[in-house]
Amino acid sequence: MHVHWPFPIETHPGLRVDLVYAPAFHNGLATIGDRAITQPGGFEVGDDLASVSLADLSDNPVLWEGTLRNLSSIIGRLIGEPSSSSPRSRPEALTRLLAGQFAKEYGAFLDKYRNVIRPRPPMPPGLTDQERQAWNEMVKRDLAREPLWGDIAQRLFAREAERFATFESDSK
């Protein structure tokens, strides 16, 4: 837990969860705000925000990729904190731990899904005929450019993995 003064200072303190992460489940939920967030098959947050249930995402590349996005976002914010932060307020150990864990998550994802063909995603509901046609063309181009899960993972996360590994080794 990383605690900071509320902004503006006159407000009452509250609890804000930036990340709930379960490495064994390859599942990480980023930012629980003022309302409950649910994702079928991935996680459920209690209406009172006091409980979170995480599912094992090992067999779901769509949701596992979401975990990588969440971890990347949180680590990026932690690394991007101003260097003027006092050592006590900047969670260096947590940042290094998450940076190392991101590399493991990314590697495990590639090991399992590098050569697995991405499926066609379901079409969003409520589109007009013209929007459906445009959506079909966009998906067709996307899958032709990056047909495998490994392709998209490398595009989205290879640079972050290198950046975080550099941060992890520089901070030690």
Itemize the secondary structure elements and their pairings:
Elements: E1 17-22, E2 27-32, E3 38-39, E4 43-45, E5 52-54, H1 61-79, H2 92-113, H3 129-145, H4 149-170
Antiparallel strand pairs: 1-2, 3-4, 4-5
Helix pairs in contact: 1-2, 1-4, 2-4
Radius of gyration, whole Å: 19 Å
Number of helices: 4
- Coarse shape: globular
**Neighbour order of strands in the largest sheet:** 3-4-5
Task: Return residue spans where pLDDT drops below 50 for at least 5 consecutive residues.
Answer: 83-88
Beta fraction: 5-15%
Number of self-contained structural domains? 1
Largest sheet properties:
3 strands, antiparallel
- Structural class by SSE content: alpha+beta
What value does the average pLDDT take? 79
- The helix content is 40-55%
Strand-and-helix sequence, N→C? EEEEEHHHH
| End-to-end Cα distance | 21 Å
Number of strands: 5
